[in-house]
Design a protein that fits this description.
41% of the residues lie in helices and 25% in strands. The chain is an alpha+beta fold. A hairpin with a 5-residue loop joins strand 4 and strand 5.
């Protein structure tokens, strides 16, 4: 007498493959990633987060993302982000943060709320990239467009713009 039990594991293998792929992306991407819990405390960061901010995973965990705050934003900035996440499920925009060294850096931040099947927020996921070099280049181009290269005085374009704003 021979008895056999057959179980189709195709779906489980596909799920394992998707999880392995997600883990590889999380660990190897050049963008900083952090995951926070429903109380907004960081529970996980990737190696790029550590490289971009200078903080280790252990130093970042159990803090809210505001621990990176540069002080350049008004008091309502972070509450507006959390409100957008709770109402719209996502937020994208420019954020000025501070590295562990104290140096400020500009980042492009994409955040999303992760909800359970019942609709409750269980996590927030954030992906950010350092755009400091781009911001510096934009500021330099703006300066060159609005100042005389020989005297470094404001040129006619800047003067006209300021006069129009004053009027």
């Amino acid at each position: 007498f021979l008895s056999a039990l057959v179980e189709d594991v195709t779906e489980r293998r596909e799920m394992e493959d998707r999880l392995r792929l997600a883990a590889t992306v999380f660990e190897s991407t050049g963008e900083g990633i952090f995951v926070s819990d429903a109380e907004r405390r960081i529970v996980r960061v990737n190696p790029a987060f550590e490289q971009l901010t200078g903080y280790t995973a252990a130093e970042a965990e159990n803090h809210t993302p505001e621990f990176l705050s540069s002080g350049r934003h008004d008091a309502d900035f972070y509450p507006r982000i959390w409100k957008a996440l709770d109402t719209e499920g996502q937020w994208r925009g420019e954020v000025w943060n501070r590295r562990k060294s104290g140096e400020l850096f500009a980042g492009w931040l994409n955040m999303a709320a992760v909800r359970s099947q019942t609709g409750d927020v269980v996590n927030y996921v954030a992906v950010f990239s350092d755009i400091t070099a781009r911001k510096e280049a934009e500021e330099r181009l703006s300066y060159l467009a609005n100042h005389d290269p020989l005297t470094n005085l404001a040129n006619r374009t800047l003067l006209t713009e300021r006069l129009n704003r004053a009027l």
